[in-house]
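Q: Joint fold for the lines below.
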Amino acid sequence: MSTNAPLLVEAKGLTKTYLVGDVRVAALDGVTLAVPEGRFVAVTGASGSGKSTLLNLLGGLDTPSEGTIEVGGALVSAMDREALARYRRFAAGMIFQSFNLVAARTALENVELPLIFAGVDRKERKHRAAELLDQVGLAQRANHRPPELSGGEQQRVAVARALANGPRLLLADEPTGNLDSRTAREIVGLLAGLNREKALTVIMVSHEESLVREYAHEIVRLKDGRIVATESPA
Amino acid sequence: MRFADAVEFALASLRKRRLRTFLTASGVTIGIGALVSMISFGKGMQKNVTQAFKASDLFTTIMVMPGGAEVPSADPDRQRPSMKATDRPDAVLDDASVAAISKIPGVQTAYPDIGFPAMVGFAGKEEFRLVQVVPFVVAASSALKIKWGRAYGSDDEEGVVVSRSLLRRLGAADPAAAVGKTIRITSVSIDIGRLATLNLGSLLSGEASPVAQATYEFPILGVTEVSAFGGEANLTESAVMIPPGPAKRIKRLPFSSVWDLFRMRDGRMGYSAVTVKLGSLRDLNSVRSRIHDLGFATFALADQFEEITRAFYFMDMILAAVGMIAIVVAALGIVNTMVMSILERYREIGVMKAVGAGDGDIRRIFFFESGAIGLAGGLAGCVLGWATSLLINRVVNFYLARQGVPFIDYFAFPLWIFLGAIGFSLLVSLVSGIYPARRAARVDPVVALRHD
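A: Joint structure:
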């Protein structure tokens, strides 16, 4: 992986403040980050260090108080609600610690969700969703609902769903937090595999540095909303 | 997001909460059902009354009164309107003027209203009634609905036509059997000779009373049917109709109301009223103006029909208002259900947003959900309203049948009632869905995803 690949994500001076009572609290305080295309970046730090806030901003779920975010040449920090929805739909896939699958829908239907919002027709999206489930190794569990799946399986469904509309960026917020260590390694392995084989850019938040050391091109350490260290283990 | 997908999302969510969907839709069903039966009742009444009026020729009837006379009214304090400035107090309704009116183009027949109070007896029972003298041409026309027997064949035939309700009061349950039987008419007259020699003593003792009674017997030729909508009073407001020939034989008072006495005093003897029948409603205004030119006052029911129509419009409004109360309650039920649904699906909304749902997509899903409740409630409400009306109709008719009223549809169901009800229900549910849908669309995904 060459380091002179073009930048996919470029965040400058990212600040996110919340008003708690009368006090202004900075969850993120001037974070600048550049991620070239095809990299696997791990963001680590203690809880409350601002990892999830950073990921929500990069994923277009939240908007920064200050600073800019550019992804693939588009200025995400300046987007309106509708443009952000499109950005989430097509450009940035997200997975979460608690999987966030819709319990009433089967694995296949969960993977279909982003395709439905993209207006893909029924036949095409069934086909694509089945293909994605096959990629994450869950072809035979397609018609099971989330409560019938193990934690690892649920997270695989979530990965398939995040990739449904073919984004170049995958954002993972503590994806292994609810999993046992063996399953956790499997999931990180899955993400690393996608990064390697499909040149998918992955930004993964984890408080367990040991878990990501093996695969991450870069480890960014956050503390109190600031980047305190950047390391390239490989 | 495609339309079909939004519908599928909405239906899936409704299916998941079956009981609540059912209960909410039931509220709409009851509201729409009430509205449908209320409006169909209003329309049914209107239809029945209009039909009864049209069938009874009342629209093509003009009542002509002497100039300066008020229209005879049961309550002298409440005179009917339609006095015209052209009325001449000296215009007298005599045979010459009746003949003149008959010659006006458009007039089918014109005949004087002659009636007298009499005691009507049949098989032992007696009733006090006004006997109306009705010429053959009118009795034989469609104005008189004779269901059993027939009308008299000429102005001189010996026989009368009575109403079924009179027969019932006189104890004859079977009108068909009464045809051909004899009815007694007892009239009252004043002996002018005795009136002159009258003193208080002889009056109190009862001897030498100037009042004389005479009883006449006539065969019943025909019986008219009772209708719930004024069919009985269609022609004459009377229960006994007699042709002019035999009427002449009956000794009776030369007046039927005190007003006639005033006219006699003024030396203006004439009929108190003349009934004019028109061939067509189109001639109404031209004939009336010709009659006014003769100096007479007229009264036509067609005038009042506009008022009746207005009254029905008003009645519709009240019935619809009652139905609306139920609709408003149902609409609040929809809002409540939808807001509850947002709270329950808070996290799901966050998930949908996280994977790319726009505000519009979320809005549409919730909007369609409340619309589906409204559509289902509207359809079921039409069935409920229709079924309820049918049941009420049966029950009411069952009781009225015992009183001799023929079967009548008290409810009318033109197609627009159903289409309107479904459309209205859909509209109400969509309006109810606006607030919940907007609220759902505004959900912040970051907050929603943290939500348990």
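Q: Anything notable?
A: Chain B has a mean pLDDT of 81. Chain B touches chain A through 22 residues (CB under 8 Å).
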